[in-house]
Amino acid sequence: MGTQKAITILLIEDNPGDSRLIQVLLAEQTAYSFEITARSTLAEGLQALEAHPFDVVLLDLFLPDSQGLGTLRAVLLQAGEVPVVVLSGLDDFDMAVGAVQNGAQDYLVKGKGDGEVIRRAIFNAIERQRYRAQLLLAEAVFNHTDTGMMVTDARGIVTRVNPAFLEVTGFVESEVVGRLSWVWDSDLHDPSFHRDMRRHLETRGTWEGEVWSRRRDGAIHPEWMRVNAVRTPTGAILGYVTIFSDVTFRVRAEEDLVRQATTDPLTGLPNRALFQRILSSGVQRALRYDRLLGLLFIDLDGFKAINDRFGHEAGDDLLREMARRLRRAVRQSDEVARLGGDEFTVLLSELRGLPDAEMVAAKVVQVLGDPVVVEGQSVRVSASVGIATAPAHGIDADQLLRAADEAMYAAKKAGKNRYAFARERSL
Questions:
Q1: Counting C-beta atoms within 10 Å of the first and last residue's C-beta, which end of the chain has fewer, N or C?
Q2: Boundaries of each PAS domain copy (predicted)?
C-alpha cells in the first residue's frame, strides 16, 4: 500500500448513523487515505459497482431491498475480484461462518471495533483477495497447461498431479498420489543418478535434464524434466514441484534429421558422409587393438545400359534390389553403404585373415550377378569388387578407400564380374 493512491471503498449501508460513523473512523489520520462512496440499498450498490472500480466493498447484509446472505451473494456476483467485508449488527457465529464460506473476506460486528480494526480488515481483505487471485491463476495453469506437473512432499511422496501428467503417463490419480515419486526411485536409471539429483536439489534447489520414464502400459519414453525445491522462509524444504514434457517427438525429429543427413534416401543404407565416419572409426580401432579390417569397393557392371534402356525409375528399383542382396550377403556386424551412383562399399570387421575377405567378395560377385527382373524382363548386371585391408593397404580411411577403389578398377580391367586385391602400400 502507498500514500499516493487512495483506497477506494464502496460502503453499502442503509443506517445513516452507522454509515457516518464508519466514514468518520476511516477519516482518522493515518498513513493511508480512503475515498468512500456510500449507498443505502443493494440496487444502488450494484449500480455503483458496475459503474466504477473499487478496491473493497463494506457491506451490511440487511438492506431495505435484500436480507441476509443473499445480499452478499448478489454483491459478490457483481463485484468479481473486488473483496467484500461484511459489516453486520448481528453478532451471530453461524452467520459469520456462512458469510466467509460464501466468499466474504471478513465479518465485522458493528460497534465492536474502532477505526484500526476496520482498516486492518480492509487491508487484509485486499491482500487475501490478491493472494486468492494468484492462487486461482496458478491453479488454472496447473490444470490447463499441456506440461505435466507433479507435486511431492519433502520425502518425495506425491501429493498432487495435474491432468497433463495423467494424460502423458496413462495413470489415474489414485495410482500416483500417496506413493513415492519415480523421480526419486526408478529402475530406468542407476541409483547414482538419483543420488546426484538429490544432492543437486539440496545444494542448488533445482535440477533439470533428460530422463527416461515408464508409462502405465510399460512403454518407456524420454522426458525433459525440471525439479524445483519449495522452501520455507527459513530455508527448510517443504516439497518439490516437478515439471516435465514428453520429448519423444523431439527425439524422433532429431533422429529423423540425423537419418536424413546420413542415410541414402534411395536404398536406406548409410551414405558417403556416414560411411566415412564409420570407416575412420573402424581403422582406428583395428590399429589400436591389432585387428584386421577389410573393405570391399563395389561397382556395378552394365548398370548404365539398363538405366538408359528402362529409365531411371527402373534403375532405382535395380539399385534397391542390389542393396538388399548386399545386406543379405554379409554378416549383421558388417557395414554396407552406398557412396552414390552404382558404387557400394562393405566394411568387414573382425576378419581372421585375407581368405575371409576373399570369401565375402566372391559371394558378393555371385549374388549381384544373379538375374534380376526389370519391368517383366530378366536382365543381368555384374559387379567388380576391390578388396583392401587395414593395415596392409592403408593406415587411415583415405588410404584404405583409395586402395580398394584402385583394386576395383583393376577387377574391371581384368574383365569385370570378379574381384581383385589391392596392392600393399609401400613403406
A1: C
A2: 141-179
Rounded to whole angstroms, how far apart are CA atoms 229 and 79? 37
pLDDT confidence bin for 323, thresholds 50/70/90: very high
The three cell numbers locating residue 336: 554396407
pLDDT tens digits along 126-140: 888 888 888 888 888
Contact 344, 320 (CB under 8 A): no
Q: Say if residues 83 and 57 touch (Cβ distance below 8 Å).
A: yes
- DSSP assignment of 269-292, as one string? SB-HHHHHHHHHHHHHHHHHTT-E
Distance between CA atoms of 46 and 338, rounded to whole angstroms?
80
SS3 87: strand
> 263-421 belongs to which CATH class?
alpha beta
Lowest mean pLDDT among 17-26, 127-136, 377-386: 127-136
Q: How far apart are CA 108 and CA 115, in angstroms?
A: 12
Q: Which of 3.30.428.10, 2.115.10.20, 3.30.450.20, 3.90.700.10 would CATH assign to domain 148-250? A: 3.30.450.20
pLDDT tens digits, residue range 191-233? Answer: 888 888 888 888 888 998 888 888 888 777 778 888 999 988 8
Q: Is the pTM of this model over 0.70?
A: no
Provide the pLDDT for residue 2.
44
User: Rounded distance, CA 192 to CA 163, Å?
Assistant: 31
Written as nine digits, the cell of 218 is: 510399460
Structural domain boundaries in the chain: 7-142, 148-250, 263-421
The CATH class of 7-142 is alpha beta
Helix intervals (H) in 145-271? 163-169, 191-204, 248-262
Mean pLDDT to the nearest integer, 4-10: 82
- Beta partners for 66? 63
Burial of 8 from C-beta contacts in 10 A (0-12 / 13-18 / 19+): middle
Write out the DSSP string of 42-59.
HHHHHHHHHHS--SEEEE
> In angstroms, how far is CA 243 from the centroid of its own chain?
9
- Residue 48, Cα to own-chain centre: how many angstroms? 49
8 neighbors 33 (Cβ within 8 angstroms): no
Q: Give the three-class secondary structure for 78.
A: helix
DSSP states of 323-362: HHHHHHHS-TTSEEEEEETTEEEEEEEEESSHHHHHHHHH
Sheet holding 56-59, edge to edge: 34-39, 7-12, 56-59, 84-88, 106-109
